[in-house]
Design the sequence.
């Protein structure tokens, strides 16, 4: 079967992404309109009368039909204009471009930590299944899955920031201005999110490695007299790398979602806190903008993972 | 543990002065905290992103914490009693009941250099009154016209006597924005480019993240402000905000709920300030429908509440029991009214029996679903049960619950919520206890003498006369039991030891007038 060029794969994937973006933003928009609470009430201020709230709806165009409002937003978004916050008037694109790097940094750190700890754990556990190493790894992994990220985050702050004073307790710094400070600020939230990732990587890797190592061709390799190390590095890991890429793409998506809570704990002005503020205040341009950004990130991450998988395992793209 | 408690009445302060506690800060009277120094950046953890930095178009009560730093107001208030005092207007008078003359202070300029004169004041007042996006039109409802009657004098013609105006001009309506900037910006939108005449000038605002302001070098108040600037870090999660102060990343955090009291007091590096405010937890009643259309049921409902215990159990003791809509230290407080609403479950039972109210009948109240609100509800349910009243709460998020209770739906017979202070008490009363007021949830009728007394409280500028009118208003409200006030929440502010000169105020919206930083 002929291989498709990577460009074609990317192209068709991006085309498939369009309905996803459309559907996601439409659903979020509908949800925001369906839940009780109205930004017009907030906009009208503390002592507003019913008449004043009606007037505000007119002034801000909130009285137009639902589909017209969504259509207007979509039309502008297609042209690269994500509108502005109804409340504060800040351009949504400005808010996002300021918030996104903070979130990206936390997620990158979390991912790196999760892989750096999870991969070795998975490997050592798989080499001697059911040995004491494996059991310890399993226990740590179970803990990692079971411990809520926000709880771990608060414990970390209490011990490492407040008691030992090693790392800052809250806030974020711009990576562009001072990379070291930015990393210092992002480290604790990164660790808090990484715990779950580490556990997931270790468990999944152990599982798939065990499967590979118990397969017939590995038995043959053993019979050929190859050492365990060579089997592991040359054959085992290459075979599980497809699984690994898939885990990573799922993890990135999960970690993005986890930032919503973690950013609140650490007062980090990232995408997570942005969407929470937007949703609470029913400031839908903000929510729409963030959802739009997140959907694109998720699609891109999945795309990269697919391309990598295809590169390692040619069977995949057919 | 360092705690500097603020005693709000002079009598309490004097009583303590003889004791060992005399060295701590005492309200606005004594500030034995060393000599104020210039310099430093005050870093504040703020709980909410402002809705707008334009006083006319913003809406949230939490905006004032930012607005007061950048905008000066025509009048100001006394921190402890909220009595009006001169601000940008150095004096004012009613030449007749419907003519209000403001004399503007000489030599004040906006941050952009525009002179703050009569023209600028007139421009602002007219904008506040008639701009379509203005949220404070109602504040200036009695103003028929504003005219410049001298380079530094503005005269307002009123369509009805309104002694509340000096109080009103200490709030949003009196915040002066540079007319130059208003005229220059598209559609007069200065929400993100605030230019006022306050102690600090705007530098930057990153939504949900940070607001930076710097000292106004040409500020009219001598030697103020002391710090070079203020940086507000916007941290909605209060526990995180407290941690940022404990860890030294911020200097001060304000508007903490009472349950944070133990947390902040545990840290020995923090000073904790608290003082009464006008913010009152209360149950709004719908007296247009059963069971509260019967005055006996309303009275019994009020007598079933043990406010002292409520304060201890629900608010960590950080509140003053409320027997009307004004706290003890307010200039218009009337002591005799407080006695009208004793805690007396037995009398409540009798009243209910008289009204034919069957024991255990359930009254539906509307409430909010957050942790603190539910805790308050649980305590109240138990108190009502003791008087034979069954109470059930129908909870919904704030926006939905208030719309359902005050709006067309008329859900429930009461709403457990809160009332934030107004600079003049006549606003509080007319917004709740007149026939068509929005916060009169049932739009039920009120006795004509109450409406008359509310009008009268706005008719004279004489404090004695006004106090008397308010005494009548308060008496009539509580005699009719139109509301069940519960407790005035204290302001709770925590800061590190660098911060000096902070004073709480009765409005409960922080001002940093005399704050300075020890290096």
Sequence:
């Amino acid at each position: 079967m002929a291989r498709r060029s990577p460009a074609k794969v990317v192209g068709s994937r991006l085309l498939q992404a369009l309905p996803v973006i459309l559907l996601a933003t439409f659903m979020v928009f509908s949800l925001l309109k369906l839940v009780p609470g109205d930004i017009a009430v907030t906009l009208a201020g503390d002592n507003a009368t019913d008449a004043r709230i009606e007037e505000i709806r007119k002034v801000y165009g909130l009285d137009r039909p639902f589909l017209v409002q969504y259509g207007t937003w979509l039309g502008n978004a297609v042209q690269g204009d994500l509108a502005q916050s109804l409340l504060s008037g800040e351009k949504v694109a400005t808010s996002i471009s300021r918030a996104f790097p903070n979130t990206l940094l936390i997620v990158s750190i979390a991912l790196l930590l999760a892989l750096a700890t999870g991969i070795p754990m998975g490997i050592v556990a798989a080499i001697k299944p059911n040995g004491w190493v494996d059991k310890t790894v399993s226990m740590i992994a179970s803990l990692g899955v079971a411990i809520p990220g926000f709880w771990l985050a608060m414990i970390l702050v209490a011990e490492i920031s407040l008691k030992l004073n090693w790392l800052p307790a809250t806030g974020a710094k711009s990576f562009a201005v001072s990379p070291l400070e930015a990393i210092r600020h992002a480290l604790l939230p990164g660790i808090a999110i990484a715990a779950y990732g580490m556990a997931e990587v270790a468990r999944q890797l152990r599982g798939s490695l065990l499967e590979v190592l118990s397969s017939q061709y590995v038995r043959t390799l053993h019979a050929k007299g190859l050492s365990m190390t060579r089997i592991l590095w040359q054959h085992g890991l290459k075979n599980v790398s497809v699984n690994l890429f898939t885990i990573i793409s799922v993890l990135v998506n999960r970690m993005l979602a986890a930032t919503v809570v973690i950013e609140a704990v650490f007062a980090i002005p990232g995408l997570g806190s942005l969407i929470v503020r937007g949703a609470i205040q029913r400031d839908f341009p903000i929510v729409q903008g963030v959802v739009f950004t997140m959907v694109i990130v998720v699609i891109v991450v999945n795309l990269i993972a697919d391309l990598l998988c295809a590169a390692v395992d040619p069977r995949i793209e057919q | 543990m360092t705690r500097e408690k603020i005693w709000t009445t002079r009598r309490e302060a004097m009583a303590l002065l003889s004791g060992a506690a005399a060295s701590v800060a005492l309200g606005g009277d004594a500030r034995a905290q060393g000599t104020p120094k210039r310099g430093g950046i005050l870093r504040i953890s703020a709980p909410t992103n402002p809705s707008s930095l334009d006083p006319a178009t913003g809406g949230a009560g939490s905006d004032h914490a930012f607005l007061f730093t950048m905008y000066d107001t025509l009048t100001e208030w006394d921190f402890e009693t909220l009595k009006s005092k001169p601000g940008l207007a150095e004096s004012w008078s009613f030449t007749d009941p419907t003519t209000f003359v403001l004399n503007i202070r000489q030599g004040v300029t906006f941050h952009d250099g525009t002179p703050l004169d009569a023209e600028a004041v007139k421009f602002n007042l007219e904008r506040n009154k008639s701009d379509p996006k203005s949220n404070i039109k109602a504040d200036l409802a009695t103003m028929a016209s504003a005219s410049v009657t001298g380079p530094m004098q503005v005269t307002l013609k009123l369509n009805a006597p309104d002694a509340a105006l000096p109080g009103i001009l200490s709030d949003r309506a009196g915040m002066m924005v540079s007319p130059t900037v208003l005229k220059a910006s598209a559609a007069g939108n200065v929400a993100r480019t605030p230019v006022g005449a306050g102690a600090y000038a705007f530098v930057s605002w990153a939504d949900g993240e940070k607001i930076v302001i710097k000292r106004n070098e040409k500020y009219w108040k001598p030697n103020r402000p002391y710090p070079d600037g203020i940086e507000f870090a916007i941290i909605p999660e209060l526990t995180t905000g407290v941690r940022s102060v404990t860890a030294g990343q911020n200097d001060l955090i304000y508007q903490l709920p009472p349950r944070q009291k133990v947390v902040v007091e545990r840290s020995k590096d923090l000073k904790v300030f608290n003082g009464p405010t006008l913010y009152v937890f209360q149950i709004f009643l719908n007296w247009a429908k059963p069971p509260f259309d019967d005055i006996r049921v309303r009275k019994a409902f009020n007598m079933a509440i043990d406010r002292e215990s409520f304060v201890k159990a629900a608010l960590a003791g950080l509140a003053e029991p409320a027997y009307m809509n004004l706290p003890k230290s307010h200039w218009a407080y009337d002591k005799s009214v407080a006695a009208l609403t004793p805690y007396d479950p037995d009398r409540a039972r009798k009243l209910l029996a008289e009204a034919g109210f069957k024991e255990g009948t359930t009254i539906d109240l509307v409430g909010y679903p957050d942790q603190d609100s539910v805790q308050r509800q649980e305590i109240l349910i138990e108190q009502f049960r003791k008087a034979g009243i069954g109470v059930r709460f129908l909870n919904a998020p704030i926006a939905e619950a208030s719309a359902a209770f005050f709006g067309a739906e008329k859900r429930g017979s009461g709403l457990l919520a809160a009332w934030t202070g107004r600079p003049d008490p006549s606003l509080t009363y007319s917004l709740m206890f007149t026939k068509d007021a929005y916060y009169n949830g049932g739009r039920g009728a009120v006795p004509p003498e109450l409406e008359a007394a509310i009008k009268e409280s706005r008719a004279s500028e004489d404090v004695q006369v006004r106090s008397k009118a308010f005494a009548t208003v308060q008496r009539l409200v509580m005699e009719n039991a139109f509301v069940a006030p519960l407790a005035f929440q204290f302001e709770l502010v925590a800061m590190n030891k660098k911060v000096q000169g902070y004073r709480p105020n009765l409005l409960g919206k922080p001002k940093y007038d005399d704050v300075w930083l020890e290096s």
Q: What stands out?
A: The CA atoms of residues 122 and 146 of chain B lie 6 Å apart. Chain B has 16 helices and 19 strands.
